[in-house]
Design a protein that fits this description.
The chain folds into 5 domains: about 110 residues, Rossmann fold (3-Layer(aba) Sandwich); about 60 residues, no CATH class; about 120 residues, CobE/GbiG C-terminal domain (Nucleotidyltransferase, domain 5, 2-Layer Sandwich), CATH 3.30.420.180; about 110 residues, Cobalt-precorrin-4 Transmethylase, domain 1 (3-Layer(aba) Sandwich); about 130 residues, 2-Layer Sandwich (Methyltransferase, Cobalt-precorrin-4 Transmethylase, Domain 2). With about 575 residues, the protein is α/β, with parallel strands linked by helices. The chain starts with a strand and ends with a helix. Helix 7 packs across helix 8, helix 14 crosses helix 15 and helix 17 runs parallel beside helix 18. The protein is built from 19 helices and 28 strands. The chain has a 6-stranded mixed β-sheet with strand order 2-1-3-4-5-6, with helices on both faces. Strands 13-12-11-15-14 form a 5-stranded mixed β-sheet. It is globular, with a radius of gyration of 30 Å. About 30% of the residues lie in helices and about 25% in strands. A hairpin with a 2-residue loop joins strand 27 and strand 28. The structure holds S-adenosyl-L-homocysteine. The site of S-adenosyl-L-homocysteine has 26 residues, from helix 16, strand 24 and strand 26.
Length: about 575
């Protein structure tokens, strides 16, 4: 919940606008400002104060505790010009809140956290437990001092400007090492602890066997991702409570599935009790990985709990990101976030140029020229399989005549894949032309480099016969000049020469141009590879200089009736 506090009429007006925009997220705190701030601070995850920063500093100062748990506080000035992230920029989410408040109120967000300002991900915002001297290492990153990255386990970190070696270090490990001076230790969630327990096993005994196993193997409890057991034990109080106290989820598997997992120490007791010769080892090993601690029993007489520890291979992350047709404001916020999130960027050189300024320092860029699609796809997948966070980019939508299919054809299920849709050339062109795609439409690529011409021709003919609006991609290049006239000829067998045709070149780019012509009048020589050509159906009309395809025949009938 976001607590809203104001003191004056102007402040109250802005407060009410925010409350109206976010009715479910906000609560207004009335009364004297000091008292309102204290109540909101105790009750809310975040505060927006429509007060001077000085006043808010004095009010919250005595309330501040720890930056990991304090609410984030944003101040908006009386004039509503600035939304200042005052405290809790990262942990309290105040930086992000300042941006959101700014966009609702038309105020400028003011964010002074150093790592945000220079585009470096904060070490405490990576979503991983972090230990050691975060402040010193962050300062070193900002000052450009050499910071070494020592990754003992693979994990898809965002980009960080790290060096081969240096006096500072970021260590990525699940082992229970103490951070050295000038070092931070990041704890990726790589460990799965399989547990078994007899009915009524006390939580202390379950925790004891887990903690003992981790301690003896010199593994960090902060890297435990989950506890795993058999379905039959999903409600066993000692196991459920142990997971809760460790702050990790409990996942369970069917006995049959566990029985299929090969384990070093099967036994008869669990086979009789729950139907699998192994619970702890099998549940830990279901998803693959390296068995670091084979089954061990708790110290009780009789022992009521068992556990085993497995290190899962780090899963890389492949984001397939559509950049939109060209204009920066047609690149989605989600695409931007993925570009900032990736430590490896793979793409065609001209597309990399389009977004280079959005990349964070330390991003490794693997660009290549036209025609290297297969290689780019393989590179992106190979990097992700090494455990990296990879973004594979394409113009428009990356799934439309672009990189998503060659990449996913290569990818195995050992990486996570995230797709970010983009505005396609056909959609961008449609918006420029008017409303040509108002009824059924298809895109057809006229490039016969990868597709035999007979196949393309068959599809053009089908669209012609079915009276579907057609957008031609890759319509014409220097070496491929007869395909477009041929395709238009096929459409002309079924549509009048007066059928509207829209030609859009470089949609949303600096040298955008478009024109509306007809099937009879289009000169193919004016079309090139930067262009899409949209041919209307028999109902498409030019209305006030715009290309309009009616949504249905009823509309058309009423138009004709009116004539
Ligand atoms: N993935 C892209 C298509 C890539 S195929 C998308 O979703 O739009 C390349 C073809 O797309 C070009 O030959 C051209 O026909 C078309 N194209 C891409 N961007 C364009 C733009 N901004 N304006 C017009 N056509 C464009």
């Amino acid at each position: 919940m976001i607590g809203l506090i104001s003191a004056t009429a102007a402040g109250a007006a802005a407060r009410d606008r925010l409350a109206a925009a976010w009715p479910d997220r906000t609560r207004v705190y009335d009364g004297p400002a000091g008292d309102a701030v204290r109540r909101a601070f105790a009750e809310c995850g975040q505060l927006v104060c429509f007060l001077a920063t000085g006043a808010v500093v004095r009010l919250v100062a005595p309330l501040l505790g720890d930056k990991t748990s304090d609410p984030g506080v944003v101040c908006v000035d009386e004039g509503g010009r600035y939304a200042v992230s005052l405290v809790g920029g990262h942990g309290g989410g105040a930086n992000e809140l300042a941006r959101e408040v700014g966009s609702v109120l038309g105020a400028e967000p003011v964010v002074t956290t150093a790592t945000d300002a220079v585009g470096i991900a904060g070490l405490d915002t990576l979503g991983l437990p972090v230990e050691g001297d975060v402040a010193a290492v962050s300062r070193a990153l900002l000052d450009g001092e050499p910071v070494a990255l020592r990754a003992e386990v693979a994990w898809p970190l965002p980009p960080l400007p790290v060096a081969e070696d240096g006096p500072y270090a970021i260590r990525v490990t699940d082992r229970s090492v103490e951070p050295a001076a000038r070092e931070v230790v990041l704890r990726p969630p790589t460990l799965v602890v399989g547990v078994g327990a007899s009915k009524g096993a006390p939580v202390a005994e379950v925790l004891d066997v887990i903690e003992g196993a981790l301690r003896d193997a010199e593994l960090s409890v902060a890297s435990v991702a989950e506890l795993a057991t058999v379905d039959a034990k999903a409600e066993e109080p000692g196991i459920v409570e142990a997971a809760a106290r460790l702050g990790v989820p409990l996942v369970t598997y069917g006995a049959e599935e566990l029985a299929r997992v090969e384990v070093p120490n099967p036994s008869d007791a669990p086979l009789a009790a729950v139907g699998t010769p192994s619970v702890a080892e099998a549940a830990a090993l279901v998803g693959g990985g390296e068995l670091l601690v084979p089954k061990r029993k708790s110290a009780g007489r009789p022992a009521m709990a068992t556990c085993a520890v497995v290190r899962r291979p780090g899963r890389g992350r492949l984001a397939v990101v559509g950049l939109g047709p060209g204009a920066r404001d047609l690149l989605t916020p989600r695409a931007k976030a993925e570009l900032e999130r990736a430590s490896v960027l793979v793409g065609l050189d001209q597309y990399v140029g389009q977004i280079r300024d959005l990349l964070r320092p330390g991003t490794r860029i693997l660009e290549s020229g036209l025609g290297a699609e297969e290689k780019r796809a393989r590179t992106a997948v190979a990097e992700a399989r090494k455990g990296q966070a990879v973004a594979l980019i394409g113009s428009g939508d990356a799934g439309v005549y672009a990189m998503a299919s060659p990449a996913l054809a290569e990818a195995s299920d050992d990486i996570d894949v995230v797709g970010v849709p983009g505005v396609t050339a056909a959609l961008a062109a449609g918006a420029i032309l008017g409303a040509p795609l108002g009824h059924d439409h298809v895109s057809i690529s006229l490039s016969d480099l990868h597709t035999p011409w007979e196949v393309i021709e068959r599809r053009v003919r089908a669209a012609a016969e079915a009276d579907i609006v057609v957008t031609f991609y890759n319509p014409r290049s220097r070496g491929r000049d007869w395909q477009l006239p041929k395709a238009l000829g096929i459409l002309a067998e079924h549509r009048e020469p007066t059928t509207p045709v829209g030609v859009v070149r470089n949609a949303s780019r600096a040298d955008e141009s478009s024109r509306l012509t007809t099937l009879g009048a289009l000169d193919p020589a004016t079309v090139d590879m930067m262009t899409v050509v949209t041919v209307g159906n028999t109902a498409t009309r030019e209305i006030a200089g715009r290309m309009v395809t009616p949504r249905g025949y009823r509309w058309q009938a009423s138009q004709e009736g009116a004539q």
